[in-house]
Amino acid sequence: MEHWTVRWTPSRRMSGTGSDILKYDMTDRFDYMKAVEELEAIAAKVEDPKTGIDDIDRCVRRSKELLEACRAYLRGTREKID
Description:
Layout: H1 32-47, H2 53-81
Helix pairs in contact: 1-2
């Protein structure tokens, strides 16, 4: 899989949960498959009734970052093909 350089603010881990869901940092290289995996993990975390509102807020913000990066990656890939 091709790597694509993007510039985003570093992610933060969810405090107090021991979770690695928000560990992926897109400051250097973007890996589309890792982003999709992280989005799936975030969705599972948000659906868990034990997840607190503060963690859900962080998950939603992180999901937005990942979705924007995925869309930019796909647009870039489409432009290379066209």
